[in-house]
Structures are given as structure tokens and as C-alpha cells.
Amino acid sequence: MRRFALIATAAAILVSLAAPPVQAAGLVHCVNQTHRGACYEPIWVDGRQVRMVFPQAGNDLPADRGTDAMSFYVLAPQTDDPQATLPFPHDHVVPAAPGEAGYSVLLHGYLVLCSPEGLSSGACVASVVGFPGFGTLPLAESVNGQALTSAEPIESALDDGLVVLLDPGAEFLGIINPGADSGPGA
Question: What is the tally of structural domains in the chain?
């Protein structure tokens, strides 16, 4: 029943996001948000930047929802203009868009870090950041010279031991707004 309620809530939000742009004018970038409520941030999916809306302002969800979460990778900025700046400059990657296998509005956040092997071999380039509660971390910027703008190179580097995932335990809702491309700075 919880799974149905989660899907129904996400569907209602998705329908509201498809409303004409005039109705969506109040939606702000999560970094600029001054009150609790829905916000958006750009994300990478399949090498393309799109807009993801966080209907509950990125707040964690209660545990035990009985549904699988899609990975939400947080890594070093992939362009000169990071998708978000708090608590450090970073970008986001998800493995699927609406209509693709594995897509879910329930997300589980992971920090993508260069592994000791990736760093020592030079295969993984890192941007060193401070993350509250975790200290200084080597946030992955590229692997084997490849940008990390889709899940495939991240997951391949994970299989090869060049990156590791740090799980801060964050699960939240996020809905990709089809057709809402978000270029740098959006």
C-alpha cells in the first residue's frame, strides 16, 4: 500500500510539473530556496542535462518504503558551472530517465569517490572537498579521461575498483521533468 501511495504521489506531482510554464514560474533552484517546499536542480542522465524536481525539498524519507530506489550519484562538477554548490560544488547523475528500465522517483544518494587504486594509478581524477561529518573526500571528476555524465562510466569504474561509493544514507523523491533541459547555470 505504501508503494502505491508513493507512486500515486509522484504521478500527481509529475502531472503538475507538465503544467504550462506560467504555473511553474515559482519553482526555484534548490540552492536559492528560502523556504521549505519543492525545488529543482539540474542532473545528468545519459550524457544530457535535464531538470529534476524535488517535491519535498530534498528532505530524507522515512525508512522502509518497500520499493527499490534508483541510484543518485553525486560527483565533482563536469563543467565549469556546477549543478549545485552546497555543501560543496558538485553535479548529479542518475542511470535512467522516465520510460527507461530502472527509472524510479525514489532515489538513494551516493557520493562517487576516487578509490586509492584509482588515485594512485592516475585513472581517477579527483576534486578534493570537505563534507560535513565525513571529512575531506576525493570526489570523482573523471575516470580514464572520460567525463562522468552518465551512469555507465561510473558503474564501470566501480566494477574496476577505480571509484567507490560513500553512502550517507539519503533517500528522497526526485522527478525528472521530461523536456525540461537544464544547461549549465540553470
Answer: 1
